[in-house]
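Write out the 3D structure for:
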Amino acid sequence: MPYSGPASAYASTGAAEAAYFRMINDKGGINGRKITFISYDDAYSPPKTMEQTRRLVESDEVLLIFQALGTPTNTAVQKYLNQKKVPQLFVGSGASKWGDPAHFPWTMGLAPTYWSEGRVFAKHILERYPNGRIAILWQNDDAGKEQLQSVKTGLGERADMIVASESYEIVEPTVDSHITSLKASSADIMISMSTPKAAAQAIKKVAELGWKPTYFQSSTSASISAVLRPAGFDNAKGVISAAFMKGYSDPTWKDDPEMLRWIAFMDKYYPEGSKENGNNVAAHIAAQVLVEVLRQCGDDLTRENIMKQAANLHGYRAEMLLPGITINTGPADYYPIEQLQLIRFDGERYQPVGSIVDVSAERRE
C-alpha cells in the first residue's frame, strides 16, 4: 500500500482494511480463526512492491496477498505470485488484466474495470453531447493507457471527437501545464483519468483558467475529501464520475441501516479516517468480500481453495454496495463487480445520473 509517495492519498485504504479485520477478530474471527493482516509501504514504486511482496511471501509466509494497490505495482509482481501459486486477490486497481484466469489463475480484481468505466463515459457523451470536443488527461502507465483506449473504443467511429490528450508522469509535481495545453484545444468536454493529487490539481486549474468544460473524473479519484475538497467544491461542481457504492455525503442514505452500521464501525475502529473518503467505503467492501471467501473455505485454508471460493461468489451482497449491485464470479469469470452508476457532484454531494448500468458486456476481450 502506498503509505508514502505520489499515491499516498490511497493510504487510508490499508488503514480502513486493518480496522475492519480488527473488528472481525474482536468478534471471534472467521470459523474460529483470527486474521493476521500485514501491510507494508511500497510508496507506489514497482521495485519496492516486488521487494515487499517477496518479504510477505518468503519471510512472513502469508496465505495470500490482498488488495495491493496500483496497476504498475501489481503488474510488477503478477508473474511472481502466479509462479508461486499465491493468491493475488481483489487487486486494488481497475485494470482489465486482473480478470484473465486462463493466463493468471491466481490473480483476481474486484472493482469494475477502467475499460468498463471508459466505455460508460463514452456512451454517456455520445447520448448527451454528440457534437462535443473532448480533451483527455491520463497517467502514463498501463492504467492510463487502458482508460484512454477504452474511451476511444467506446466512441467508435466518433473517436475523432477527441481533439487533445495529454499524459503525465505520476512523479510530476503538478499537471498545470498539461491542463493549459488541453484548454488550448477549445474542447468543451474534459476527461481526467488520474490519481488523487493530479485529479485535484486538474479540477482546480481548469477553474483558474476560466475553462468550463463538461468534466468527467475517473472513479478511483472522485473522493469528496481526498480530491474535491482540495480542488475546491465550487470548482468541482458539475464533475461527473461513476460509482458502485454508497456515499456518506449522499442524504439518500442518511437513515440507511448499512450506512449507520458503517458510521458506527468508523467511529469505533477508524475514528481518524474521513467518512467522506470513498476509499474507506471501498476498503470496507473489499474486506467484507475477503471475509466471505475465507468463511466459504471452512477448514480447507489451502491457497487452491482460496481461489476456488473466490471464483464461487454468487449474488453476494457486501454492505455499502449500491442497491441492486451484487458480486458474482465463476471459474471463467474473474470480474466480481460489473455494475456502475453515473454520478454528478452538485457542490455538496454526488447525485445519481440515470440508472445503474450493467457493464458486463463492456469487458475487454
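The CA atoms of residues 246 and 320 lie 5 Å apart.
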